[in-house]
Prior knowledge:
The protein has helices spanning 13-23, 38-48, 64-74, 89-97, 110-121, 129-140, 154-164, 169-176, 180-194, 199-208, 214-218, and strands spanning 4-9, 29-35, 52-55, 79-84, 102-105, 126-127. By secondary structure, the protein is of the alpha/beta class. Strand 5 (102-105), helix 5 (110-121) and strand 6 form a beta-alpha-beta unit. The longest helix has 15 residues, at 180-194. InterPro entries: CheY-like_superfamily, NreC/VraR/RcsB-like_REC, Sig_transdc_resp-reg_C-effctor, Sig_transdc_resp-reg_receiver, Tscrpt_reg_LuxR_C, WalR-like.
Amino acid sequence: MSNIRVLLVDDHDMVRLGVRTYLMTEPDIEIVGEAGSGEEGVKRVSELGPDVVLMDLVMGGIDGVEATRRVLAERPQTKVLVLTSFLEDDKVLPALEAGASGYQLKTVLGEELATSIRKVHRGETVLEPQVAAKVVANLQKPKSPTPTAETLTEREMDVLRLIGRGMTNQQIGETLYIGIKTVKTHVSNILAKLGVEDRTQAAILAIRNGWVDAESKKG
């Protein structure tokens, strides 16, 4: 059976040295390369094709979350095991959402780290206990209610239908005989109530949910 080929990505030389020194004692793990930044890590993955990437999260340039996303887009078969000092929700959840197969803290024992590398290589998910607790807590949070047409006023629905037809604010104002400032206010309220970032997303949501009828969609 061939060795597990590992790439180390961390912006601290001493961290890479310590991890490399221990993992070199493991007969089934081979360190094929190192990178000192997220950008370099993505490049090295493309060049070396490692089985597992040990990924730091907080680095200069692109962070570990974005690097993980790019690595897996470039090479989906590679597994990413996060190795970091951070336990905050804004680090943990985005890293897992980006596709990381595991999340370990830098306080992990060398033997445990080697075991985690073997597990993610086999396709298992490995989470440090405190991380697993955060994931469970996040899953148990009440979900935001799905936006419905009932949250909008009648006038806001009129504006949304015209957004769905691709009209500009000026065109909407002329159609409804209201000022452009009023249109902008309605659009802002619509985006806030539907929980979307822009009018394109609002239009897609309206069409998908049938809030824009067939005639409206024809324009």
